[in-house]
Amino acid sequence: MTHRVHPYVFRIGETVTWKSRWFQHKKFRSYLLEDTMLRAWLDKKLRASHIETVELERSPNILQVIVRTARPGIMIGRGGEGAEKLKTEIQKFIAKIQKQFHIEPERREIKLTIEEIRNPETHAAIAGQMIVDDLEKRIPFRRVLKQALEKISNSREVKGVRIAFKGRLDGAEMARYEWGRKGRIPLQTIRAAIDYAEKTAHTTYGTIGVKVWIYKGDVFEHETHKM
């Protein structure tokens, strides 16, 4: 029986770093709860913007939210209206969490940073969301799989890609597991830069799970310090 480890967690401290950056011994539980719920809420709310990741940095008086997206224009809006509205909604959502779980409120300034992703196909989270969008439009899963593999592998920095689907594919009676691969995916090599994401497509036949692995080459010690 194998022991499966999340590719991101497996490489923390080697090729990747934490998505939440802060240290607070006394309020660790409440901060962790806020970060987890805020990240899940933003992923759901900003689904159309194709979010790659949400990073959180905390200081005594500031909470900085860094959102990396393939469609920054949708989030920012005209004259920055969308960004200001989102910042207000984040503040309200955090206050709601604090009230629900009886967390002592803090006066913190919310800083929102929106960063654009230049090559969205090379990021597993965005590629997974694009696949989900196609599946929800009832495009046959084999065509979606083939097109996604071709599109992702065409990028120079991508050395290998693997995509897996699980569920009632094309409305079949029984759920099944289908996958495709192009290139190499060295999952057991810690220095291998593997980008991984899980997404869920909500179709009329039920949910379909989508997993994406993208291998971008090896990261050696002298390159790690530069990142």
CATH class of the largest domain: Alpha Beta
How are the strands of the biggest sheet laid out side by side?
1-2-3-4
Based on the coordinates given, report the CATH architecture of the largest domain.
2-Layer Sandwich
The structural domain count equals: 2
What this model shows, in words?
The chain is α/β, with parallel strands linked by helices and 227 residues long. The chain has seven helices and eight strands. The protein has helices at 7-10, 28-45, 72-76, 81-100, 124-136, 141-153, 221-224, and strands at 20-21, 51-58, 62-69, 109-116, 160-167, 176-183, 192-203, 206-218. The strands form two sheets. Strands 1-2-3-4 form a four-stranded mixed sheet. A four-stranded antiparallel sheet has the order 6-5-8-7, covered by helices on one side. The longest helix is centred in the middle third of the chain and has 20 residues, at 81-100. The two termini are 36 Å apart. The model has no long low-confidence stretch (mean pLDDT 92).
What keyword list fits this structure?
alpha/beta, 4-stranded antiparallel β-sheet, single chain, Ribosomal protein S3 C-terminal domain, 34% helix, 4-stranded mixed β-sheet, 227 residues, GMP Synthetase, Chain A, domain 3, 2 domains
Write the layout of secondary structure elements.
Layout: H1 7-10, E1 20-21, H2 28-45, E2 51-58, E3 62-69, H3 72-76, H4 81-100, E4 109-116, H5 124-136, H6 141-153, E5 160-167, E6 176-183, E7 192-203, E8 206-218, H7 221-224
Parallel strand pairs: 1-2, 3-4
Antiparallel strand pairs: 2-3, 5-6, 5-8, 7-8
Helix pairs in contact: 2-4, 5-6
